[in-house]
Amino acid sequence: MTNLYQTTKDAKTLEIEDTTREGFPFRLVVTLRKLGTITMLDYFISPEEAEGIVTALSASVSSSNKS
Fold first, then answer.
1. Confidence at 67, pLDDT banded by 50, 70, 90
2. Are 6 and 30 in contact (CB under 8 A)?
3. CATH number of the domain residue 42 falls in
4. What is the pLDDT of residue 14?
5. CA-CA distance, 62 to 3, in Å (whole number)?
6. For the residues of the chain, what is the DSSP string, one character each?
7. Domain extent for 39
8. For the chain, how many structural domains are there in total?
9. What does the pLDDT look like over 18-54, one tens digit per residue?
10. For position 1, what pLDDT does the model report?
């Protein structure tokens, strides 16, 4: 898997990776590091879900730029 995007804030990391998993070309990974424990949650998303996320984030950015 290739890492397409990564951001870290405090003890949290969000990553977006591309995958070869059929029907799910993207994987979101949320990692939390706290009290010596590492918890990783992953979620495979379809192209349709990725488009929905892009639309939601773009709308949010557009409305915050108007403020």
1. low
2. no
3. 3.10.450
4. 97
5. 26
6. -EEEEEEEETTEEEEEEE--STT--EEEEEEEEETTEEEEEEEEE-HHHHHHHHHHHHHHHHHHH--
7. 2-65
8. 1
9. 999 999 999 999 999 999 999 999 999 999 999 999 9
10. 80
